[in-house]
Amino acid sequence: MVRVKYTDSDVDLVARMMRAEAEGEGKQGMLMVGNVIVNRNVANCLDFKELRNINDVIFQIQGGNYSFEAVQKGNVFYNRARGVEKRLAKKTLDYWREHPSKYALWYFNPYGPCPPTWYNQPFTGQYKQHCYYEPLPDTCEGAYR
Question: What is the model's pTM?
Answer without folding.
Answer: 0.95
